[in-house]
Amino acid sequence: MHFHCLQHVSSENLGRVADWIFENGHTLGYSRLFENDPLPDIQSFDALIILGGFMSVHDESVFPWLRAEKSFIGKALEQNKKILGICLGAQLIAVQLGAKVRRNPDQEIGFFPVHFSQESTRGSVLEGMSLPTEANVFHWHGETFDLPSGARRLASSEGCRNQAFVAGSHVLALQFHLEVTPRIVQDMIRENIDDLRPGKYVQSAGDILRNIPKLDVTNSLLDQILTKFFGSQS
């Protein structure tokens, strides 16, 4: 398979996803939108991965490329491309599926548990996968999405009801970050340190860094999800 990645900021890259892509013999292209890279021809890739970023889906006046990106995602959805969205990427997918993106009552920044629903995988592309009942995962978001019509909620947390969804056989959206590596977490802290204001679901930089060993478990969960969603062979 040939994957294409839409990247919004330099600090939030594919992380463990890129390792999985290359380990399984796939190929990879990028549109680094923060560097004004062009979007590819819609026929030039098999699967699309949309990463996170500090901007909102509503920030078109500040980041004009968001308008073209939304249209591009809409075309990929129409053509039933396999699409994985992470954080902002999940919100962009939700918008293109007709759902609203809005401020979450609380920011979630740091390591907090999400609860998976095994029932939601039935009849979906993840059917048969043994998801954990709970996983302590990394978050960095202040907005959330409503659940698109026809989509199934895959995960929730105490601080945010809609943490993940599946739509049909080709869309997976994750509000949280299973892909991050220690370097990505460190870069996110450095570049977004002002976000770490005290809150019910906001950890300090020190607490986040002390929890970095948990990434081994979440990266392993990501590998399982990617293998089930995309398949393991090129």
In words, what does this structure look like?
- With 234 residues, this protein is α/β, with parallel strands linked by helices.
- It contains 6 helices and 9 strands.
- It has one domain: Class I glutamine amidotransferase (GATase) domain (Rossmann fold), CATH 3.40.50.
- It has helices spanning 16-23, 65-78, 88-96, 182-191, 205-210, 215-230, and strands at residues 2-7, 27-32, 47-50, 82-86, 101-116, 134-145, 152-156, 164-167, 171-174.
- Helix 2 packs across helix 3 (88-96).
- The radius of gyration is 16 Å and the shape is globular.
- The termini are close together.
- The relative contact order is 0.17.
Give a brief rundown of this model:
By secondary structure, the protein is an alpha/beta fold. It has a single domain (2-230), classed as Rossmann fold. The protein is built from six helices and nine strands.
